[in-house]
């Protein structure tokens, strides 16, 4: 109960202070019936000016929002093109396709894991062939420089325990086919790459140079601001408040806030 009365008291004090601020000059001018018409005249003028100012600010804020929207769209497109250009310049490994034994196939590289370490062979221009053997099936990988790597897939004798893997011929042949298909796709990608990169770079340049939409949005805001400054409704509201504020100052000796 005490807290409720405290809240009410604080609210009343705040309301009184606010009215004294809005209608400066003392208690009688802010609350007395004698000056009610003067307060009403000031309140009406202030309301008209604030309504006009609010409408003007809202219209200009919408125009600024249009500028921001165009800027964000343009920035987003430039970022997308930059990512595409970066991806074309440095495609990386690409997605993982499959793995068998010591070879792991990605879209653009073949990773070899051996006792001496790991190495990556570019899939582009790679030559791969399969050869069966009595104990080991072999996959020969010849890179663009002519260097050959042999991956071994033992199939005989049967593995003495489950941890030692064996590979049948069809399994290895199917994996080689996947490598060959990846090579074909990568060679096609590399053949198209210069043209795609050139097109992406040209589009970035065009997007960067094209400021028509942004210029139009900025011009729309400038024109709106000019119209608002010249609008007779705004001038009338400003004049009415200035007259009411001057009248109040002559009455009280204090200038009221807008």
Can you tell me the residue ranges where pLDDT is under 50 for at least 5 consecutive residues?
A: none
Helix content: 55-70%
**Record field, number of beta strands:** 7
Q: Tell me, briefly, the overall form.
A: elongated
Would you list the SSEs in sequence order as H and E?
Answer: HHHEEEEEEEHHH
Number of helices: 6
What structural class do the secondary elements suggest?
Answer: alpha+beta
User: Largest beta sheet: what is the strand line-up?
Assistant: 1-2-3-4
Spatial gap, N to C terminus: 38 Å
Rg over alpha carbons: 40 Å
The average pLDDT value, as a whole number, equals 90
Profile the largest sheet.
4 strands, antiparallel
What portion of residues belong to β-strands?
Answer: 15-25%
List the SSEs and their pairings.
Blueprint lengths: L1 H21 L4 H5 L4 H54 L6 E5 L2 E4 L2 E6 L2 E6 L4 E5 L4 E7 L5 E7 L14 H41 L2 H19 L1 H21 L6
Antiparallel strand pairs: 1-2, 2-3, 3-4, 5-6, 6-7
Helix pairs in contact: 3-4, 3-5, 3-6
Tell me about this structure.
There is one protein chain. This protein has 258 residues and is an alpha+beta fold. The chain has helices at 2-22, 27-31, 36-89, 169-209, 212-230, 232-252, and strands spanning 96-100, 103-106, 109-114, 117-122, 127-131, 136-142, 148-154. The strands form two sheets. Strands 1-2-3-4 form a four-stranded antiparallel beta sheet, with helices on one face. A three-stranded antiparallel beta sheet has the order 5-6-7, with helices on one face. Strand 5 and strand 6 form a beta hairpin. The radius of gyration is 40 Å and the shape is elongated. The model has no long low-confidence stretch (mean pLDDT 90).
């Amino acid at each position: 109960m005490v807290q409720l009365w405290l809240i009410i008291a604080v609210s009343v004090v705040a309301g009184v202070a606010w009215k004294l601020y809005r209608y400066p000059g003392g208690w009688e001018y802010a609350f007395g019936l004698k000056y009610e018409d003067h307060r009403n005249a000031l309140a009406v003028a202030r309301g008209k000016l604030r309504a006009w100012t609010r409408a003007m600010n809202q219209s200009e804020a919408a125009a600024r929002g249009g500028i921001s929207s165009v800027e964000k769209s343009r920035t987003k497109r430039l970022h997308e093109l930059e990512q595409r250009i970066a991806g074309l310049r440095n495609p990386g490994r690409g997605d993982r396709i499959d793995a068998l034994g010591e070879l792991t196939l990605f879209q653009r590289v073949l990773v070899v894991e051996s006792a001496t370490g790991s190495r990556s062979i570019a899939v582009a221009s790679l030559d791969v062939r399969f050869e069966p053997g009595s104990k080991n099936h072999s996959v020969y990988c010849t890179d663009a420089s002519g260097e050959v790597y042999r991956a071994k897939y033992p199939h005989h004798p049967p593995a003495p325990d489950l941890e030692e893997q064996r590979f049948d011929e069809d399994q290895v042949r199917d994996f080689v086919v996947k490598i060959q298909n990846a090579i074909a796709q990568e060679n096609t990608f590399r053949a198209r790459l210069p043209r795609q990169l050139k097109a992406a770079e040209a589009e970035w340049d065009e997007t960067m140079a094209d400021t028509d939409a942004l210029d139009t949005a900025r011009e729309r805001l400038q024109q709106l601001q000019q119209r608002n400054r010249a609008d007779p409704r705004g001038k009338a509201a400003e004049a009415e408040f200035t007259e009411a504020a001057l009248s109040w100052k002559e009455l009280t000796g204090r200038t009221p806030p807008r």
